[in-house]
Design brief:
disordered C terminus, 5 helices, alpha+beta, seven-stranded antiparallel β-sheet
Length: 262
């Protein structure tokens, strides 16, 4: 009768077990990568307009702040001056336009992507650029839970806003979209936006009113990057741009300028 030596059998079984473990680990890693991709691609406009924690460098580290009031106007749908009247959340929400039934397919393996968000109601004092929707839905939607580093109830700002896909809320990109007006014009992080001729609220409002009639919407994909000067000039120096969070600065959503955010 043919027999397999005990030592060879043990070696064979050990190899099979090791191969099985490697396959399981590989499948889990693939599944996690797939879930991450779904999270990042679930809400294209919202993902562009807000700072998400956990996504590496925030958008404001890549895209250049507006270099003029006209560019600031062209990037947005609505611009208002107002006060934060209420904060709600955090809430867990599905990606825009999706229901739980959309993720019942076996390929999702029971995973349903959800975003943690907070909402900030704005009591509008003055509309400087009206998209026909802002007065009906003056709400700012920020990714992540509310914290002390974000706008607080009772604080007054000038908001430059992009309409979200549901048309029931608005988003922002960075500190340059939430400006304080009480002691000169400042981005939310305290830096100057650097707009020529803008020194106070009155001069900023005047410049915006002059820019609105010349409005030409600039899609997010066309926003210049912070590396545009390097690409165009080839001088090896990054462009210096006013505004926007840098390393260690904290934006309205609580994300830091370098790193994975809150």
């Amino acid at each position: 009768m043919f027999s397999i030596p005990t030592k060879s059998l043990v070696t064979f079984l050990a190899a099979v077990m090791l191969l099985t473990v490697l396959i399981i680990v590989g499948c889990q890693a693939s599944d996690q990568n797939g879930q991450a991709e779904m999270n990042q691609s679930a809400a294209p406009w919202d993902a562009d307009r807000t700072l998400h924690s956990g996504d590496g460098y925030p958008i404001s580290m890549i895209k250049r702040p507006p270099q003029s009031v006209q560019e600031m106007v062209n990037r947005n749908h609505a611009i208002v001056i107002g006060t934060i009247s209420a904060v709600s959340g955090p809430k867990e929400e599905l990606p825009y336009g999706k229901t739980e039934e959309d993720f019942q397919d076996a390929k999702y393996q029971g995973y349903v992507p959800r975003d943690t968000v907070a909402y900030y109601d704005i009591a509008i004092e003055e509309v400087l650029m009206d998209d026909g929707n802002i007065l009906a839905h003056p709400r700012l939607r920020l990714s992540g839970a509310h914290n002390p580093k974000r706008p607080q109830v009772g604080e007054r700002f000038l908001f430059t806003l992009g309409q979200n896909p549901d048309s029931r809320s608005y988003g922002i990109v960075a500190d340059w979209d939430v400006l304080t007006l009480d002691s000169g014009v400042r981005n939310f992080d305290g830096t100057s936006p650097g707009y020529t001729g803008v020194t106070d609220e009155a001069s900023l409002v005047k410049a915006i009113r002059e820019a609105v009639p010349l409005y030409e919407f600039m899609p997010f994909s066309q926003w210049p990057t912070r590396f545009a000067a390097v690409e165009e000039d080839g001088d090896g120096e990054e462009p210096s741009a006013p505004g926007g969070p840098g390393d260690g600065d904290v934006g309205p959503t609580g994300d830091t300028g370098g790193g994975s955010g809150n």
